[in-house]
Amino acid sequence: MVVEILSKFPVKSLLRFRCVCKSWYELFESPSFISKHLKAGNSNTRLILRYVDSSDDPEYPRLRYCLFLDPTLANISLEEDLILLIPIEEHFRGPFEGLFIMFIGGDEIALYNHATRDLKFLPKLTLIDNLESIYTIMFGLGLDPKCNYYKLVYIVTYHDSELGKVLNDSRQVFIYSFSDNSWRNFQGFEFGMYDLDEVLDCTYHNGACHWLVPFGAFHPLCCHYVILSFDMSDEVFEEILGPNCLLEISPKHTVFGLYNDSLSFLVFDERESCFDIWTMKERYHWTKEFSTTPILAVDAPIGFWKNDTFFIRSNTEELLLYDPNSEEIIDFQHKGCCFTIFFDKESLFTLKC
Side-chain half-sphere of 60: how many Cα atoms within 13 Å? Predict the structure, then answer.
């Protein structure tokens, strides 16, 4: 009962409670409680929006990260420039499970928890090629529920500039363990049939990282998508087929994520001008949850949000929040392209040096 109550407190309060007794200090340090606290804090989750903004100067668009301070989004005017809150001005992604991942040159990674202000530089990676030949980077972060500690999966794809092609056969997979602060090489999976050049961010769910990847060559108008899953405990990759609607679909017409705590797809039906939600409540079995009524002047899904709502984009490149229950649409007054949303969850994760 006490653990349930404590899991609902904000990070700032729990950091003060560590001084109450040794058992509470150890509880707040345990990965299982950290994971429980992440799930329990859903009502306080804030929105982070990443997009390319060309409103000031169309010739020189800039990447923007906006943190919306009101978790309910009742007042969308309350926002901050997230880039100003990050301690290192390098390429960063996230947050994922409450942590930002920063890439410094390709062979060095730093993690930052902006709830606790902890910053950690991971040991340097040993790459098989030089940094200039790195083409894409793919990663996943999540809890190994059997060992009860977190792992980071890091996949590097190389490019041969002289041959002008991606070296699909020379991808490297690294696994970082937070328990001993070390990297190790992972062998035993062939990536040749997957196009990892167009992979979106990782979705962690039930002890596994999931990526939506094109099966075969990527095409901007029509792709065959599958889910590539990595079990954080057994350390095995697995391919999971999506619903049949993903066999041939435009990349901009589908997004993958969590909806009501289930792996789900938000798919735009261009012909009917509506959105379908498919969920996997039972393993390998997809069910269409519902279809919206036709929505005019929209062209793409952006991502799931809270309380059954989801983000979509208008055909004039404006960000909209849609509530399928009330059919209400909120204009976020942000115009641009390449919209991506993230859940800003407060995490107790301690990045010990």
Answer: 2
